[in-house]
Design a protein that fits this description.
Helix content is about 30%, strand content about 25%. It is built from 19 helices and 36 strands.
């Protein structure tokens, strides 16, 4: 049916019109009890039966639709439900008829007239788009004839009054459509997912062309267009631009992650993307914790998710329970285990979970026909794998699943796992070929059965870098020399100084441009700016870098949070913040071998945003730090060592005025410094502090040390006894030790001996159980349980030797 203008509007017709068919034409036809009603946007296109036609139109009207009034005639139909006939009216969105603006169900009695006021959401009706309604009934007798004489009135309100609701709805629709399309990057008019987003956005900007949030969403889909207006915040007088911008950038990252923890994470650890996709998002947690975020809050958040994954049986034999492709086998929890090994360093639970994963990785790999260790399948679970046809290949992303294994070897040098990884790296080298372009390239995709290979990016760089770091054999560096600028951007460590390539690789990087395109892990052009600063010392590169990241953070602040994106599409490039503040990247998505030499914790009320930090050089035996304290008071911090060699370090600290001016208030000290050990640092207010650390005497290598550990799950108070499980976590047998119970004041309440425990070099846990008797009336609450080694060789870490009660 077509709604026609009534007499009062200049037309010569009744309010509702429909075509007539002869009895012969309608004989035998069956119809559904639904009437489709069209209100044309412009009646001038309809041929007039008399006169000059009607001019009933909302074209160019400076008003918005407030609602629709329908004078429903008395229905001459039999009731279907008691005395009543159920009815339904749907008013379709004029720009997307598959979406209802209003869906109203009601019932009427036969023979009664009614006027219905359908209070739609306010809409600025677009030119050229007709209004479409459906009226349906439960009565099989219902049809167009039942509505003869019905009147329909469009009720409008002033533009300014209708605008807020129209804009709010279109923004909501834009938000939801963008969240749905962003995972697959839908950007084609052949796909209605894009067309719906485009239609809603166009209708939003039609009525509110300067809508800030709308423009930001549109720019996300059209980066080539002019960006929305942006005003970079100004540094206070006397504050270095780089320090102000860096800490501002860090503040946006900190607020974003805390927003998700505070507003999205539920009690079982989920954030709303399902535990699998939530796992990708959690790659950000360790980096923020290391840069000065709330470490305990971030750790608790991440471990809630990981424990939920184990509790819901997402792991079997250390791998994913469900059978997936090579990437999603990793992104179903194994990635979170790797993250946990950083943020919960030394945890017996995480280390023994990694041991289980490492055991099963030996099953996933094998020696192929060419005598190389390769991955056997790209479609597997913890219990089965597909090896035939297209599935019998290892691919570049197949090696992401080694994340916990790499962390395990990094921790204690686990011999069996280390051997497996270096054998894989050796297999990689056998597939470095001269390609058709005349350049050497890596072919990481290898058919296990035939040894056929394909070129496939440089995703598993971390396996080669790990093999080099573990063995010192430079053969593993050869592939990185095939494309030095790309390698400098790929590797998490300070490669410029660790490999002494500032004058070679560094010069090549300065002479080449990098893609200005976002990836899951960042933007190459932004990494180039950081490396350019390292090479030249010119902080203008950092000013440009942080300004770019702040603008992206501002433009995406709503999109990343309340925009409710597909959770692994939330974007914030934090890699360069890590490179600057930590001397290397601790962790980014797909960049899984840590390169950071330090991390930071700040004594309250100071936060990570109190101090701008640059590490122009960060190697295992030499670290340089430039820091500016933005606070008006001195800031105390704990600097923790990570990818450094253990031993005695000389620490020189002083205050610098103008750039390159001599240091004043210089102090020098010698201290033990190593992975997971803290150094106390005080930053004077509104001043630039320069710190240089040099290894002057090597200590006992980490892999030559035993390690004892206890976790919260290992200590149980039952009646008058405290039961403790002690774990051996190093690759060296742990000597005899003792477990000590202390009260909150540090007084010893009880102790018990622990026998020597073998090292878990077979990748199976090695533990000892002890029991302590509580003295009568002992107040142990608020105290602690510690495991204390009796050996002369230091442990790998002291972070896992104490459990608070």
């Amino acid at each position: 049916m077509i709604a026609m203008p009534g007499v009062s509007t200049g037309g010569g017709r009744t309010a509702i019109g429909h075509g007539k068919e002869s009895p012969e034409a309608t004989a035998g036809k069956q119809s559904l009890p639904i009437v489709h009603l069209l209100v044309p946007a412009d009646y001038r296109a309809l041929q007039a039966d008399e006169g000059h036609g009607a001019s009933y139109s909302w074209e160019n009207m400076h008003a918005g639709l407030d609602g629709i009034a329908i004078d429903l005639p008395a229905l001459n139909l039999k009731p279907t439900h008691g005395e009543y006939i159920p009815m339904n009216i749907q008013i379709k969105d004029p720009i997307w008829p598959m979406r209802d603006m209003l869906d109203f169900s009601f019932s009427v009695k036969p023979g009664e007239q009614h006027t219905l006021w359908l209070d739609t959401r306010d809409r600025m009706l677009p030119n050229g788009k007709s209004l479409y309604l459906t009226i349906a009934s439960a009565s099989g007798e219902f049809g167009p004839a039942a509505l003869e004489g019905m009147h329909l009135r469009l009720i409008f309100k002033p533009w300014k009054d209708a605008l807020p609701e129209h804009v709010s709805d279109r923004l909501t629709q834009v938000r939801d459509n963008y969240a749905n399309l962003v995972e697959e990057s839908v950007n084609s008019r052949k796909l209605n997912t894009f067309n719906q987003f485009d239609g809603d956005m166009t209708d939003l900007l039609r009525v509110d062309p300067e809508n800030d949030l709308g423009r930001k969403y549109w720019n996300e889909m059209n980066h080539e267009q002019i960006k929305p207006p942006f005003a970079l915040p100004k540094a206070p007088a006397g504050v270095p631009e780089w320090a102000f911008l860096q800490t501002t950038d860090l503040g946006y990252l900190n607020r974003e992650i805390n927003w998700y923890i505070d507003n999205r994470q539920i009690s079982d650890g989920e954030f709303g993307g399902g535990l699998s996709d939530d796992s990708d998002f959690l790659n950000w947690w360790p980096g923020l914790a290391f840069m000065g975020g709330d470490h305990d809050k971030l750790k608790h958040s991440l471990l809630r998710t990981l424990d939920a994954m184990y509790a819901t049986n997402m792991f079997t034999n250390g791998l994913a329970t469900a059978q997936y492709d090579e990437l999603h086998s990793y992104e179903d929890g194994i990635n979170v285990l790797g993250q946990a090994m950083m943020i919960d360093f030394g945890s017996p639970k995480q280390i023994e979970r990694a041991m289980e994963t490492s055991r099963r990785l030996e099953w996933l790999t094998g020696i192929n026909v060419a005598g190389q260790r390769q991955v056997r399948s790209s479609y597997y679970s913890g219990t089965k794998m597909a090896e035939g046809g297209v599935w019998g290949w290892g691919k570049g992303r197949s090696y992401m699943v080694f994340h916990p294994a790499l962390q395990l070897v990094l921790y204690n040098g686990m011999p069996e796992t280390r051997k497996m990884v270096t054998e894989i790296a050796d297999g990689f080298l056998a597939h470095r070929h001269l390609d058709a372009n005349g350049k050497y390239g890596m072919h990481y995709a290898v058919n296990f059965h035939t040894n056929e290979d394909l070129s496939e990016g440089n995703t598993p760089w971390f396996m080669l870098w790990a093999a080099y770091r573990w063995t010192g054999d430079k053969k593993y560096l050869v592939p990185f020399g095939d494309n030095p600028p790309d390698s400098l951007r790929l590797i998490n460590s300070d490669v410029l100084d660790m490999l002494n390539v500032r004058d070679t690789w560094g010069k090549q990087l300065l002479q080449t441009a990098a893609p200005d395109r976002r990836t899951d892990s960042g933007t190459a052009s932004e990494t180039n700016l950081h490396l350019a600063w390292q090479l030249t010392g010119d902080t203008k590169n950092l000013d440009k870098l942080y300004a770019s990241q702040i603008e992206t953070a501002v433009d995406r602040e709503f999109i990343n949070t309340e925009g409710s994106l597909w959770i692994d599409r939330v974007y914030f490039n934090n890699g360069e913040l890590q490179r600057a503040r930590l001397g290397g990247v601790a962790l980014m998505r797909n960049y899984i071998y840590p390169g950071n030499v330090v991390s930071w914790k700040f004594d309250a009320p100071a936060t990570g945003q109190s101090v701008g930090i640059l590490v122009p050089e960060g190697t295992p035996d030499h670290i340089k730090i430039i820091a500016y304290n933005l606070d008006p008071v001195a800031v105390k911090a704990k600097m923790t060592g990570w990818e450094i060699d253990p031993g005695k370090w000389e620490i020189t600290q002083g205050v610098q005025g103008a750039s390159d001016s001599p240091l004043r208030d210089v102090s020098t000290r010698i201290a033990e410094f190593e992975r997971s050990r803290d150094l106390e640092i005080t930053f004077p207010p509104h001043a630039t502090t320069v710190i240089e650390l040099k290894l002057v005497a090597k200590g006992v290598p980490y892999w030559s040390r035993p390690d004892l550990g206890i976790g919260e799950d290992d200590v149980k108070v039952e009646g008058g006894r405290v039961k403790v499980i002690v774990h051996s976590l190093g690759s060296v047998d742990a000597p005899s030790s003792k477990v000590v119970l202390r009260d909150r004041a540090g007084n010893v309440l009880a102790s018990a001996g622990v026998p020597a425990i073998k090292a878990p070099v077979d990748l199976f846990p090695k533990t000892a159980a002890v029991s302590l008797t509580l003295p009568n009336g002992a107040d142990w609450k608020g105290g602690s349980v510690t495991v204390e080694s009796g050996g002369k060789v230091p442990e790998i870490t002291q972070m896992n030797n104490r459990v608070p009660l």
